[in-house]
């Protein structure tokens, strides 16, 4: 260990070793990994070693594919075998709902360059002879699945890093982390102190403790996890002898189990319902290379199903039973990136599938440390996606829920209950009294829709139009024809003030900064000209700006704002969070309702579209903005929480004569689709440029230079690669959920290769069963004259216009010819004709909202 390093990685599990390798590979010198014991001494040594590419988030799936592609490179560089078995794997569906889920997953794989296939249970049996196929209706086959040697792989990362010049210090615990006023970290270890510019927390099971060294409470929890290893099974030996092949991996959703061949028997793991957290408050430093006491009773319900579905297992003896802990974040995805509020303290924690995700995590984090940007759309893994609401107990409830749902279907209309209600606004009970069906938005309860009765106030889970359909339709129709009231507290809110506020904002935002009393909509770009935010800004009084944005990106955006604030800037940035709550009224009668409660003249002449000002509403001090996401005439009304009940009840009472109704987020989103409005996290993400997103009118290249303006200018001059478009779909009984492939009648290869590479980035090398490289573009992107040319980002039913609507991306060159082409969108395995609509289906001229 030297006196000084550029970066110190704490933790020699698979993740820490991957981060070290990627930093070394990208040319960083003077980097050190410190490990308390031997390498793999946390979760890594007893992992089952399985890997796969499929993930609910296509961006995470992409990084998983990268991880798998890396192992050959590591073996070649280090000479250390990873013990790769690329067997392929099948996910088994036992019900039509699970089959729908697999079809949706398969469709998503089409534009990611994945070569998944829908196959029959009999076809699975040919590759996994232990299966009783009568229990299943179908399966999803993924050739890029398998298992490896966890210890060999971790050492291959470490050896490769060492070859590239990195240092390792083993049997040396980091005891303290202290930062000097100049930002340099003192890393106090059992073997002395070293200094470093950057610290990476890859502490795995002890990540919380390494966080606490700097006052950080990371939202993660370790869960106990079992797998069993059987004795030799004659059917396995027989299969190996006859075919010369190994059994494939199988996931059985019904039994919540995964299984694969291990020696001449099988390994079978469970994500059991009666799951158990391990060391929920603190991980003991004394925990060594140890396993936990197995609990057969806990996993026996899963085993019973397993014995039925894989009959030879019932007779097989259990050779060994493993119970080990590993960590999860509340949503099961890793927590990576620069920790908000700290300088050069990086997180590489909560990686629950280190052998599928470790490479991608190392790549993204090292890019971020070196280039200032992860280089991929990793919002789903960004540590900043959780706010202060993710406390220890909340995390505990959510992690348990997530663990027990690992092999469950996620329905598009599903809300998860654990830890709720967590945060509520003052009108929560008033909304519940009106049969609100609530959702959880970043820890906060918000009304999704209103049911006709208490008994009906629940989501009937489905991939198809469900029990909310008629209620949401009624809400939309009432708003469009009269007036509706909804809560909008689940926006992020910031206040930016100070003498330099305007110029500072103008350097961050693409649009002109609004004059006093006015509002603008503006994207925010990174240096590469990609869209990293989308905001509404109002200048309420001179130099006093309020900004509204996406709630789940609040911490992420605050980190960006703070990172772009210099000492000399006289700017105050306040994240208001739930200290300001909101209501919105919309519809042609909304002005008449609001006018009854305010003393200001809010006629169109006096309070125009895109105006914002302080105004008393029912005597409560509020900020009122003339804007609404429904695209109607409408207002957003912001107030301190203590006034919310009064304002809400007053609006309801003033609206009685106009038949005011409550509407929820689902109606709001239906109405925004009818206006072709994009949303953050779906249409707007850091993989798109502003012209690709069709945000042209918000990009003011002739104002001052702003972050990303050079790249945006280039995009405009060269033309965008992609184009966001809206579709009207001839759907039947299901609308899009997001991530569906878009097909067009274009020649094979013309756009599909482009789209696959654009979406999945640098496509990793894939291997076939003999270890040879597979072509990147697979046959399932093509079907006769039809080829996959894009992907859906979001959609649903437009209840006022009575149309099934979707938004998505296609190549710009294809967009230019869209009048001559035909399009289809695949929903649950069936292709439906889809027509691009340039004009918004509702009020294309915008006269209604301006009126
Ligand atoms: C039973 C079981 C089966 C699993 N099966 C799979 C599977 O099939 N596929 C898969 O991808 N994943 C699997 N996993 C999960 C996998 O093990 C984890 O994703 C992975 O090990 C996480 O690696 P890590 O490097 O983040 O953490 P860890 O492996 O926990 O490593 C953290 C390291 O940091 C060190 N450390 C902590 N604090 C300090 C300190 N202060 N100073 C110095 N060193 C410190 C620890 O000693 C430890 O070695 C399984 C886990 C279990 C328990």
What would you note in describing this structure?
The chain is an alpha+beta fold and 851 residues long. It has 22 helices and 41 strands. 55% of the residues are buried. The model is unreliable at 761-779 (pLDDT under 50). Strands 4, 5, 6, 12, 13, 14, 15, 16 and 17 form a nine-stranded mixed beta sheet that branches. Strands 1, 2, 8, 9, 10, 11, 18 and 19 form an eight-stranded mixed beta sheet that branches. It has a six-stranded mixed beta sheet with strand order 29-30-31-28-22-32, with helices on both faces. The site of flavin-adenine dinucleotide has 41 residues, from helix 1, strand 3, strand 12, strand 17 and helix 10.
Radius of gyration: 27 Å
Number of helices: 22
- The count of β-strands is 41
Portion of residues in beta strands equals: 25-35%
**Mean of all residue-level pLDDT scores:** 94
Which hetero ligands occur in this complex?
A: flavin-adenine dinucleotide
Per-chain topology:
Blueprint: E1 4-10, H1 14-25, E2 31-34, E3 50-51, H2 58-78, E4 89-93, H3 96-110, E5 117-119, H4 121-127, E6 138-142, E7 146-147, H5 150-163, E8 167-169, E9 174-179, E10 185-189, E11 192-201, H6 207-212, E12 221-230, H7 234-243, E13 249-252, E14 257-262, E15 265-270, E16 277-278, H8 296-309, H9 312-315, E17 318-328, E18 335-338, E19 345-349, H10 354-371, H11 392-404, H12 428-433, E20 436-441, E21 444-450, H13 469-481, E22 484-487, E23 491-497, H14 501-508, E24 519-525, E25 531-541, E26 544-550, H15 554-563, E27 572-575, E28 581-586, H16 590-595, E29 612-617, E30 620-625, E31 634-639, H17 644-655, E32 661-662, H18 665-674, H19 709-718, E33 722-729, E34 741-744, H20 752-760, E35 766-767, E36 773-774, E37 782-783, E38 786-798, E39 803-811, H21 812-816, E40 823-827, E41 830-836, H22 847-850
Parallel strand pairs: 1-2, 1-11, 2-8, 4-13, 11-19, 22-32
Antiparallel strand pairs: 3-7, 4-6, 5-6, 9-10, 10-11, 12-15, 12-16, 12-17, 13-14, 14-15, 18-19, 20-21, 22-28, 23-26, 23-27, 24-25, 25-26, 28-31, 29-30, 30-31, 33-39, 33-41, 34-38, 34-40, 35-36, 37-38, 38-39, 40-41
Helix pairs in contact: 1-5, 1-10, 2-5, 2-10, 13-18
């Amino acid at each position: 260990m030297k006196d000084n390093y550029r970066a110190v990685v704490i933790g020699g599990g698979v993740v820490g070793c991957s981060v070290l390798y990627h930093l070394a590979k990208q040319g960083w010198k003077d980097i050190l990994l410190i490990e308390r014991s031997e390498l793999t001494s946390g979760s890594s040594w007893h992992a089952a070693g399985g890997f796969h590419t499929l993930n609910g988030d296509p961006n995470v799936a992409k990084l998983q594919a990268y991880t798998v592609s890396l192992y050959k490179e590591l073996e070649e560089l280090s000479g250390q075998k990873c013990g790769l078995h690329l067997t392929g794997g099948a996910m088994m569906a036992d019900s039509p709902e699970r089959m729908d889920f697999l079809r949706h997953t398969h469709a998503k794989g089409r534009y990611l360059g994945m070569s998944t296939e829908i196959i029959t249970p009999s076809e699975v049996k040919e590759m996994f002879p232990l299966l009783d196929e009568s229990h299943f209706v179908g399966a999803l086959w993924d050739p890029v699945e398998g298992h490896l040697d966890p210890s060999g792989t971790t050492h291959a990362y470490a050896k490769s890093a060492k070859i590239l010049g990195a240092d390792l210090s083993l049997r040396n615990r980091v005891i303290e982390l202290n930062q000097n006023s100049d930002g340099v970290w003192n890393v106090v270890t059992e073997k002395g102190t070293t200094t470093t510019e950057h610290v990476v927390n890859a502490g795995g099971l002890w990540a919380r403790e390494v966080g606490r060294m700097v006052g950080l409470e990371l939202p993660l929890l370790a869960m106990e996890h079992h797998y069993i290893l059987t004795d030799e099974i004659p059917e396995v030996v027989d299969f190996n002898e006859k075919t010369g092949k190994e059994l494939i991996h199988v996931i059985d959703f019904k039994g919540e189990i995964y299984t694969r061949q291990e020696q001449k028997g099988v390994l079978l793991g469970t994500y059991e319902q009666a799951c158990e957290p391990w060391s929920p408050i603190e991980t003991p430093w004394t925990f060594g290379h140890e396993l936990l006491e197995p609990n057969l009773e806990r996993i026996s319900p899963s085993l019973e199903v397993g014995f039925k579905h894989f009959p030879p297992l019932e007779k097989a003896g259990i050779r060994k039973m493993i119970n080990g802990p590993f960590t999860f974040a509340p949503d099961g995805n890793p927590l990576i990136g620069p920790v908000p509020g700290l300088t050069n303290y990086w997180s590489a924690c909560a990686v629950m599938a280190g052998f599928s995700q470790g490479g991608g995590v190392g790549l993204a984090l090292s890019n971020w440390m070196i280039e200032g940007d992860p280089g991929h759309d990793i919002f789903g893994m960004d540590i900043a996606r959780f706010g202060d609401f993710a406390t220890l107990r909340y995390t505990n409830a959510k992690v348990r829920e997530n663990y027990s749902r690992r092999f469950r279907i996620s329905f598009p209309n599903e809300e998860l209950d654990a830890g709720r209600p967590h945060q509520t606004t003052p009108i929560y009970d008033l909304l519940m009294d009106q049969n609100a069906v609530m959702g959880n938005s970043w820890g906060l309860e918000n009304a999704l829709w209103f049911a006709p009765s208490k008994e009906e106030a629940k989501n009937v889970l489905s991939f198809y139009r469900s029990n909310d359909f008629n209620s949401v339709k009624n809400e939309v129709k009432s708003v469009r024809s009269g007036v509706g009231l909804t809560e909008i507290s689940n926006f992020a809110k910031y206040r930016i003030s100070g003498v330099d506020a305007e110029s500072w904002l103008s350097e961050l935002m693409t649009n002109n900064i609004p004059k006093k009393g006015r509002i603008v909509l503006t994207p925010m770009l990174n240096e590469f000209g990609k869209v990293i935010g989308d905001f509404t800004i109002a200048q309420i009084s001179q130099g006093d700006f309020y900004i509204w944005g996406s709630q789940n990106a609040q911490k992420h955006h605050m980190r960006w704002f703070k990172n772009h604030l210099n000492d000399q800037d006289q700017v105050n940035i306040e994240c208001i969070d739930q200290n300001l709550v909101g209501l919105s009224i919309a519809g042609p009668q909304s002005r008449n309702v609001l006018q009854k409660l305010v003393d200001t003249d809010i006629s169109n002449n006096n309070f125009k579209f895109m105006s914002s000002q302080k105004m008393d509403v029912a005597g409560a001090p509020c900020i009122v903005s003339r804007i609404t996401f429904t695209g109607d005439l409408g207002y957003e009304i912001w107030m301190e929480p203590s006034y919310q009940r009064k304002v809400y009840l007053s609006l309801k009472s003033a609206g009685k004569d106009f038949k005011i109704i409550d509407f929820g987020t689902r109606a709001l989103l239906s109405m925004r689709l009818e206006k072709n409005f994009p949303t953050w996290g779906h249409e707007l993400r850091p993989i798109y440029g502003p012209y690709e997103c069709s945000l042209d009118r918000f990009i003011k290249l002739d104002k001052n230079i702003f972050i990303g303006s050079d790249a945006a200018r280039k995009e405009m001059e060269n033309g965008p690669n992609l184009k966001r478009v809206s579709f009207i779909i001839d759907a039947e009984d299901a609308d899009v959920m997001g991530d569906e492939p878009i097909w067009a009648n274009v020649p094979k290869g013309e756009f599909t290769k482009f789209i696959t590479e654009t979406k999945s980035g640098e496509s990793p090398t894939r291997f076939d069963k003999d270890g040879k490289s597979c072509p990147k573009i697979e046959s399932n992107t093509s079907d006769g004259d039809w080829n996959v040319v894009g992907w859906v980002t979001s959609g649903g039913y437009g209840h006022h216009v009575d149309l099934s609507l979707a938004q998505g991306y296609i190549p710009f060159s294809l967009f230019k010819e869209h009048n001559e082409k035909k399009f289809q969108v695949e929903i649950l395995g069936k292709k439906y004709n889809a027509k691009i609509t340039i004009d918004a289906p509702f009020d294309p001229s915008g006269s209604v909202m301006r009126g």
